Amino acid sequence: MTPKPAPNESLLDELEDTLAHGTVARRVETLRKVTDLFVDGATDFADDQVALFDDVFECLVEHIEISARALLARRLAPLASAPPRTLHRLADDDAIDVAGPVLSKSDRLDEAALIRTAETKSQAHLLAISLRRVLSRAVTDILLRRGNDEVVHSTVSNPGADVSEASLDTLVDRAALDENLAACLAMRPNLPRHLYLKLVAKASATVRTRLEAANPKLAQEVPSAVRMAGRRARSSAVALTSQTEIAHALVRSLHAEGRLDDRLVVQFTEQRKFDEANAALAAMANVPVAVAESIMIESRAEGVMILAKVAGLSWPTVKSIILMRDELATTAIADLDACKATYERLRRSTAQQVLRFHRVQDAATPVQA
Domain residues for 360? Predict the structure, then answer.
């Protein structure tokens, strides 16, 4: 296909005359003509022709008011072949009406431009970036660090945003005081299972406080109601991502074939595979996965050691589980020497009794509630 002609000489002459002597109205009219010409042939222009338009637009952008720049931004932002220098100039505009359409829609903006804007511009600029179809982890981290609540909620709700696990962990802590953020996080399709469980635990604390404040006479009943809600959340189909279900199925298969042992558990923990490690511990201790999960997210390590003792795991394997758990939860590392001493003293029969008591209490909660 023959490329369409670039701006002709008469239009370039008009542009030169407009910049030298024209009124604001005439500049805007010239911009409209150039924009119409580019949009009409955008898909057919060669790179050198796009570069020529880039020169023309840059000259005009410097001499027009905000409303005209905003119109230009809205027309150029969706175009895959839009002039790159012009787009960067519009994206860098302090006026959000100008920068917003480009920041939220243009695929021609490179990551460096997005990072620069995210680091330096207003919350409105950050909100526009958060609406992009795809957001890299580098950009997302800045939005979550600099953004206000609206920016953070928008970013977390964006399925195309690649959010690092470190950022998600920080957001889970923040969600304890922000129910809207908690809801946004819970809806993310690929939220790691251990962070979902941490979110449930922290959100439960918020719910507990609010329920107790609203119903002082029922304060004694609130903890058991929250425990029941948390258990339902952990066991619900909504809470289980496809990755979690695949992990559980893999572990069930390994256990049925008699291949589940200390070596595999250590392999899971070293690779930070919470779902697999948790399901393995549950299978080897012969308890439901939900019971193992509720123990794994407790702040103290005693529950994990009780499960591990029932499962017959060696201390090195138990140590690897504790280290994985503490790292994923970003909590202080447990005193491993003290844990080792406790684990070696712990008798398996005692661990089995404690675990039976734990399961009876857990099963009794709905009746009490």
Answer: 242-368
